[in-house]
Amino acid sequence: ESSSSTQATDKQQNELSSHLISSNKFDITKIKEEQLKDSSIQNKIKEIMLDPTKHPYVFQDGVLYKLMSTNATNTTKTKLIYLPSSMINSLLRSYHNDSLSGHFGICRTYYKIKNKFWWPYMKRSISQHIQSCLLCQQHNINRSKRPGRLQ
Q: One Pfam family name from the record (predicted)?
């Protein structure tokens, strides 16, 4: 019962995620524009042009992608959009703070994003964003026990 409801929730979240990507904020032309402005991405593109086989990235149709393994044997690689630093906060707001996103925790938010986007220190920035979310701080309870009285 609970696993089927979790699967249904995950399916709804995937549909929502697809909607967010196709929305105006994260369409591929906007990502291309922002990648052009990002100096670290431009440096990475130059490195790839010099030796494409040396890096786990691919530059295709004007967009830089990170190649990530999808299984333990590293036989299958998935292309993830290398998200420019200028778009990280708006993406995190869309996947966490948006009224349809549900203010999920660090792991769930990470798993929603990790199959579509990549950027350096991704887990850390997701964690910092969620830990700084005022609504989550107000509504999430502290599950640790209070220290006992000293005698």
A: Integrase_H2C2
